[in-house]
What we know:
CATH topology of the largest domain: Beta-Lactamase
Number of helices: 10
Shape: rod-shaped
Number of strands: 12
Radius of gyration: 52 Å
Largest sheet: 5 strands, antiparallel
Distance between the termini: 71 Å
Strand content: 15-25%
Order of helices and strands: HHEEHEEEHHHEHEEHEEHHEE
Oligomer: single chain
Number of domains: 3
Mean pLDDT: 82
Helix content: 55-70%
Amino acid sequence: MARRNTIANKWFLKCFSAVLVVLVLLDIVLYFVFRSYYYSSVESILRGEANVISTVLTRYYTGSGGSSAYSSEIRRTIEGFDKKDRMELMMINEEGRVTITSSGFTPATAHKMPDYEAAHQNGQGVGTYNGHQSNGEKIMAITVMLDIPDDNYCAVRVVTSLSKVDVQLGMTMLFIVAVSGGVILLMLTLGLYFIKSIVIPLRKISGNAQRIARGDFSVHIDEESDDELGELCHVFNYMASELKNSESIKNDFISSVSHELRTPLTAIKGWSETVAENLDDKQTAKKGMRVISEETGRLSDMVEELLDFSRMQGGRFYLNKENMDLFAELTDAVIIYSEKARLENKTILYDEPQSVVTIYGDRNRIRQVFINIIDNAIKYSAEGGQIAVSVIIDKDEVTIAVEDDGCGIAENDLAKIKTKFFKANNTVRGSGIGLAVADEIITAHGGTLEIKSELGKYTRAEITLPMVV
Length: 469
């Protein structure tokens, strides 16, 4: 079933309909404007003719000195009217009857002349009528009263048909309507083309989004323009690429965590069976219990790290802050891992500061960060390598630097090293979320965690925290 709630339908119903209504209203307004213009022009011409003739006749009557000569002049003026092909000139008597016309046809009976009645009654002596005659013809008439004492010729009336004016008005409006129709057609064509240029990419994006929802992250949309749609396609392709990378990282994380969990569990299971079978061998039991304890500690640390990450993702990660001695926690972390480094034939170089630096933070979380950073330095250092731990105090900040001379990190991986689940080296054990958790903890303390590295040479982690002064 076709969808009705589409962009094209909304555009047509709203924008196109609005433009259509505006054009219709504009055509109506233009009709009345042109009608008023044409009719006003006709009225002005008729009024001018009536005024000229009434002035001429009034002057002639005043100068002739007799009604007989005046009557002859009127007939001569009416019968010789040079515009009789466009309008009709009439003389009206006191009773409101037409006494003579330029056409030569005098009505046998009286008919209504609203313009004469208006001119006869108002003080200006001029009346106008715009309407239909008894035969249905549409006319315009102007009557001007003559200021002379002659009952047979007391008013001049000029009449013209409006049929040609209406034809001209109709042709003008037909042209305007045709132009409006052309505008509507052009707008419809361009609008549909524009809508099509938007709808097709959006449908591609919608279809590919459904494919992503089903787990297919290989989708790609061609970026055919450099406008907002092109930018949207670019962002969509970037999103698909990032989702693909995230999916890959997530799968690697699951595989890594599974391996990390399986290793201590296998050791615990194997040594527990060995101890159970050799209960009388105290040396074997002691060694087995030590291994079980160490692997259980590893499992506990891994689970706690996962729980911390889960709390951070869910916004349930809280800190118990108080004024604390930063160097005391750093020294404890170094002592804890010094033995581990020695067993792996590696050395931690650390000159314990004699001063006390106080920060406002959670001592357990800060120690967790130090342990994580030092542990990473040991893991990624080669046998016989050195890990240098140093302290830099600058005004109201303190920086803890942990640098190893191990394998280093590639430049392309350095920007993603603090990203959750990311591991630059999959040959080394770890879940890939340790640095992400450490970065969150340091950020929550108002500090920064920066990783600097050069592949094959070194990796340096710098933890900067504000001091309590």
